[in-house]
Amino acid sequence: MEDIIIGSHVSFNKNEQLLGSVKEAISYGANTFMFYTGAPQNTLRNKIDDNLTKEAYELMKKNNINPNNVIVHAPYIINLANDNDNYNFAINFLKEEINRVEKLGMKIIVLHPGSHVKLGPIRGINNIITALNTVLTKETKVIIALETMAGKGTELGSNFEELKQIIDGVELKDKVGVCLDTCHINDAGYDLTNFDNVLVQFDEIIGLSKLVCLHINDSKNLISSHKDRHENIGFGTLGFENIIKVIYHEKLKGLPKILETPYITNNDEENKKLYPPYKFEIAMIRKKQYDLELIDSVRNAYK
Ligand code: FE
Ligand code: FE
Ligand code: ZN
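The joint structure predicted for all components is written out below.
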């Protein structure tokens, strides 16, 4: 039986860079992972250290992590939908990010399509298309995976039609794909209790061949809430069984699945700490068995 490809968001710090990310992923029992090349909310980036990258690849090999399944997430402050004063900066930053990711050897960059901020969806989508056509060249080795969004504020890409419009406008179509986020599509209005039907829609509108990775999150909110607040697997409105159906879906075999669920607090107001839930969530997913005690298990393991 083919193993599922499951991992989580991990950190990428300036001392250990990719090597640290690999070590963290292994500590969770993951066989893939996702990272930001620096803080997600800013564009400050350190120089890539090739020696650390080399060590990271050796460690991945030893642990059966295929680098082609490892995902990079572009910083979420990049907004390609609004051609204001920051538009050129965002385009240039994305170009540099692609160079960094190619230097690290990863193949997929997840990108939030952007928010139109009063420009309206038509202009917003055109701005995204122009930006992508500026950034992508024949030499580009990575795929930009546009993430399905919750539709918070003026976010674009909260339905398959908008993502399709963007892809249609991109000249180098083999260099764009989609990353499907389960929390986001729920919040955007797709019914995860009938995921087969969601996939049929995705296939009809965008085409399943365009799907390159998934973000696996439960949601704190009901369908169509447009909120975007992630919840731990089994503890939100999607529920454990519906999420398991996504992860093990026949049509999604071989696609990397990444957890971005929230850290668990230690419940100590005086000395607040946050613990990663991923080791326990991944174990629960592999067993296909919902663990009601997950939160306590995480707290006990790290205290
Ligand atoms: Fe994202
Ligand atoms: Fe996501
Ligand atoms: Zn989100």
